[in-house]
Write a structure and sequence with these properties.
This protein has two domains: 78 residues, lambda repressor-like DNA-binding domains (434 Repressor (Amino-terminal Domain), Orthogonal Bundle); 190 residues, Endonuclease, Chain A (2-Layer Sandwich), CATH 3.30.870. 47% of the residues lie in helices and 12% in strands. The chain has eleven helices and six strands. Strand 5 and strand 6 form a beta hairpin.
Length: 292
């Protein structure tokens, strides 16, 4: 039995992805050994739910717990054990976003880490330009609810966090970002006219990058395939499942069940078919830019 070595080099993975890969490997070892989650939890002075959270990569790992589990699962080779435990240490290293921890709800932390590790990010947005393609002024208008008197240091830091997230799109190994945008977004008065004009200019600039595509869904075809925003993150590492991400007012859902992922994937396919092509969408952006 071999410990995990992420393909493409370990340095390409952030702590969130590392935890998920390690959790997946622990689950496979437990199942191969014929051990239940309840039995595994008892061995580390925990519960069945704790093992479930560990195997999903939802919580950090304690080296002592993992060492005990490896023994229980039959991994006795010193070299393999050390390789696994080294990755445990790396999975607990804080990501760059931890400096914004006081601004980020706990449910948002995983999204930032998953974005960093994704090979492809597909997004449907019926209300706003997705955060990964927003300008500072557009993001600030959203975060201050359109009121300049509400802009303060906390809002500025939230904007800085959003801008920092976007840097991954310019990496040599940048993920592929594919956005389907409802046409109404091009008319929604976020900020003032100059803010919206600047945002459309930014979209026109970003779609020149080979890893970024935008399709606009016309008014007369919207509302049929999906009625709320969501993202689908796909990973090059086979140990990582595809994940759909949706937000609600006080939290978010991370969905990785295969049948549910298939439904989100089909919805994106239908949205792409209904939307204008990337070239036609660019023409729509240019036309709207000239109207403002």
């Amino acid at each position: 039995m071999n410990a995990v070595t992420p393909p493409g080099g370990e340095q390409s993975l952030g702590p969130t992805a590392r935890r998920m890969i390690l959790g997946s490997q622990l689950r496979r070892m437990r199942e191969d050994a014929g051990i239940t989650r309840q039995e595994a939890g008892y061995s580390i002075r925990g519960s069945e739910s704790k093992i479930s959270r560990l195997e999903l990569g939802r919580v950090g790992f304690k080296e002592r717990d993992v060492a005990d589990l490896l023994t229980m699962y039959g991994m006795t080779d010193p070299g393999e054990r050390q390789q696994f435990l080294d990755m445990v240490k790396e999975s607990n290293e804080p990501g760059w976003w931890r400096r914004y921890g006081d601004l980020m709800p706990s449910w948002f932390n995983d999204l930032v880490g998953l974005e960093e590790a994704a090979a492809r990010i597909q997004v449907w947005e019926p209300l706003y330009v997705t955060g990964l393609l927003q300008t500072e002024d557009y993001a600030r208008a959203i975060m201050s609810h359109g009121r300049k008197d509400m802009v303060n240091e906390q809002v500025d830091r939230r904007v800085a966090l959003r801008m920092r997230r976007q840097k991954m799109l310019s990496r040599p190994d940048a993920p592929r970002l594919w956005l389907v945008l409802d046409e109404s977004v091009l008319y929604r008065p976020i900020g003032d006219r100059e803010v919206l004009k600047g945002q459309i200019d930014h979209l026109l600039e970003m779609i020149q990058q080979p890893n970024i595509s935008v399709q606009v869904l016309p008014y007369d075809r919207s509302g049929y395939s999906a009625d709320s925003a969501f993202s689908l993150l796909r990973f090059a590492e086979e140990e990582l499942p595809n994940i759909a991400y949706t937000e609600y007012l006080t939290g978010a859902h991370y969905i990785d069940k295969r049948d549910e992922i298939e439904r989100y994937s089909r919805a994106l396919d239908m949205l792409a078919v209904d939307a204008e092509t990337p070239d036609r969408s660019r023409q729509m952006l240019l036309k709207r830019r000239a109207e403002i």
